[in-house]
Amino acid sequence: MRNGIVVVGNGMAGSRLVTGIRSRDRDVPVTVFGAEAEQPYNRVLLSNVLAGAAEPGSIGLVDPAWYGANGVDARLGVEVARIDRDRKVVVAADGSETEYGTLVLATGSTAVVPPVPGTRDGADGGLPDGAVAFRTLDDCRTIVAAAEGARTAVVVGGGLLGIEAARGLVGRGLDVTVVHMAGHLMERQLDPGAGRVLARTLRRLGIRAELDATVTALDVAGGRVRGVRLAEGALPADVVVLACGVRPDTALARDAGLAVERGVVVDATLTSVTDPDVRALGECSQHDGTVYGLVAPAWEQAEILADLLTGADPDARFTGARQVTRLKATGVDLVAMGETHHGDDDPDVEVVRFTDAGRGTYKKVAIRDGRVVGAILLGETGTAGTLTMLYDRSAPLPSDRLGLLFPGVGGATEADSPVRMPDAATVCQCNNVSKGRIRACWEDGARTAEEVVARTRASTGCGGCRDAVEGIVGWLAEQDTVPAG
């Protein structure tokens, strides 16, 4: 299979690439290696599994039977040990060798485990019982098992993943404390004001936050975690979840002599700058100095690369992506995009802000040269569609800025309303699905939200746009029944 495509990594990026290749070309040989033995799954929805709101099987992306039915050689549960670029061969951990014409690295990221005492006190020299680094579905199962009969939990890390883990554990009845090194939660996406409102919201949900706090060690006794030690005091816990961030998994690429900075360095065709026969996408890749850690850019890269590898669009190029972060857990709705840390003292930036800490609401829009350059919506996200569209397209803004914060106010287009939303508006950010595409599906015979989802994949990423998709389908159904005047 010298001319075949070999994909290393079967997560959200790799599986999307494989299905995209096969939808465009039924004949090209494709082999995919997945370190995890199960079907690829939606990592964005792991917090729902942790909270008990979803079963592990419900977040799968590709049925294992699909591979055989579509002529894809899937090596699930088989890790790749090394890449021999001279012979153009992938060597697996089981000793097998697979030739490639094009090699695609989609190895994703690995969880960061802080190098503190106690993290190597387990029976196998790893984490002790009751301590888990939250990254995979197996990690999720381990946390759920550890939570059985437990009363208290500490989550180390107050970023997006840490907040999701904490919300999931509270949903299982545990008393949860988040320990975070920074002065406010989710400091990469939120400014201090939004961080304070988020902390207050979490307190109402039963989650305490210890800020400006550093974990100096895990407390371990008899091979089991008993809590964490801080620079000032200690926190006992039956379960400790490490959500300390991730780093691109570039070990294979580095060992193979490929150019690696934070990620595998690629150009606009997602080709390694070192080897024209090697591509990389998703969290392990670095394009124009940026490593994208969100699902929407990874899926966009997968579609572009599928076009290039099959010849469906030889001119396809990845030119970068706007990053929109969404957190949608029970009791916490959050959308953040772009430059969120501007203050009122910046003379070049106009800031529009509304805060109602008692209701858990914080809204902020940063504007430069009449264009949205950043926004935060916490607690009430009714204008998220409008702001995302304005941010994505650098579109001109309405004169009444209140419409950016409150749906239906002033002259702003209420993009979350199917009636007013323009066809060009992006409904599903993860899959880049516009209202116009949903309308086209309707006109082509899709009459339910499920049929639209099946054709467009809208709402299969973070799930935050499901209500909008259903609203558009419902509105289209109403229009279809209106008699002609």
From TrEMBL:
Is Metal-binding one of the keywords?
yes
Write out the coiled-coil annotation as residue ranges. Answer: none
Boundaries of every NADH-rubredoxin oxidoreductase C-terminal domain copy: 324-387
BFD-like [2Fe-2S]-binding domain location is 427-473
User: Its pathway?
Assistant: Nitrogen metabolism; nitrate reduction (assimilation)
Record-linked InterPro entries: BFD-like_2Fe2S-bd_dom, BFD-like_2Fe2S-bd_dom_sf, FAD/NAD-bd_sf, FAD/NAD-binding_dom, FAD/NAD-linked_Rdtase_dimer_sf, NasD-like, Rubredoxin_C
Q: Name one Pfam family in it.
A: Fer2_BFD
Could you tell me the keywords of this UniProt record?
A: FAD, Flavoprotein, Heme, Iron, Iron-sulfur, Metal-binding, Oxidoreductase
Cofactor names from the entry are:
[4Fe-4S] cluster; FAD; siroheme
What residues does the FAD/NAD(P)-binding domain cover?
A: 5-302
Give the record's family classification: Belongs to the nitrite and sulfite reductase 4Fe-4S domain family.
Q: PANTHER family per the record? A: NITRITE REDUCTASE (NADH) LARGE SUBUNIT
Write the protein's name. FAD-dependent oxidoreductase
User: What organism does this protein naturally occur in?
Assistant: Actinomadura gamaensis
